[in-house]
Amino acid sequence: MTPRVAGLTDVGAVRAANQDAIDWQVSDDNRQVLLVVADGMGGYQGGEIASRIAVETVMESLKGYLEAGNRSDEPADAMQAAINLANERIQARRATDPELSRMGTTLVIAWVIDGEAYIAHLGDSRCYFVHERELRCLTRDDTVVQNMLEDGSIQPDDVPHVPFRNVLTRALGASSALASFTRLALEQGDSLLLCSDGLTGALPEVDWLPVISGAGAPEDKVRALINASLANEAADNVSVVLLTLD
Questions:
Q1: Phi, psi for 126 (deg, rounded to 5)
Q2: Looking at residues 202-222, what average pLDDT do you find?
Q3: pLDDT of residue 174
Q4: Which DSSP helix (H) or strand (E) runs through 7?
Q5: Strands (E), the chain
Q6: pLDDT (tens digit per residue) in 106-152
Q7: Spans of all domains in the chain
Q8: End-to-end alpha-carbon separation of the chain, Å?
Q9: How many CB atoms lie within 10 A of CB 96?
Q10: Closest of 196, 138, 204, 137 to residue 8, by C-alpha
């Protein structure tokens, strides 16, 4: 399998600044791929700083495993260690400036090693899996509204009317940064898509699959998803990172 990756982040149609951050790396032998998306919060400056710290720390901590001949025996442990370090750095940076006292960020990581995908996340940035023209979300939103859906307090139709629907129950920058993990096997032709909630909030999932499963390069598909979000006047920053396995 040959991995191909593309990613874009856009300020969206409403926001004045982009508080999302993305990055990715493919190993020289094509056997490993690392993808990261973070969506910052806590004001313009705070959110931008937090998401950047998170992405840079994860890439710095894990990129050594992608070098020729290196492998992690326990990918989930290595990912959690990187997340813990990012959390410590965000907390330390926050302590230096009262204006950053509320900053934090979501985080979603996908690490593919020889066809096995390891997914870690905190917050409401998501990872989706596309297999044989079916789209499946691999992550659970860490939000108050998701808890309410699961305990039956509200129904799906009620979600747009919940005023605190975007309040997170877990995020990087809090006292604990224990991530949720998922693992699955990938096959040739499969795709992984990481995104911030700017995409999920602006573009219905039903509109994604024709783009992701259609013909064209990953760069074209990512741009098409971003453009469709902007056409729907995306109210938040929109970030997408797409991996396809040819």
A1: -125, 165
A2: 94
A3: 77
A4: strand 3-10
A5: 3-10, 20-26, 32-41, 104-105, 107-113, 116-122, 126-131, 134-137, 180-185, 191-195, 238-245
A6: 999 999 999 999 999 999 999 999 999 899 999 999 988 887 877 87
A7: 3-245
A8: 5
A9: 8
A10: 196
* Helix H or strand E encompassing 12: none
Provide CB contacts within 8 A for 233, sequence distance 6+: 13, 14, 202
Q: Which residue has the tokens 């995409």?
A: 199
Strands 107-113 and 126-131: unpaired
Range 3-245 classified under CATH 3.40.50.300: no
What per-residue string of b and e applies to 78-91 under the rule 16 or more CB within 10 Å gives b? Answer: bbbebbbbbbebbb
CB 151 within 8 A of CB 143: no
- What is the Cα–Cα distance from 52 to 38, expressed in whole angstroms? 8
70 three-state secondary structure: coil
Phi and psi of 51, rounded to 5°? -65, -40
Query: Residue 216: which H helix or E strand, with range?
Result: none
**What whole-number distance in Å separates Cα of residue 143 and Cα of residue 113?**
30
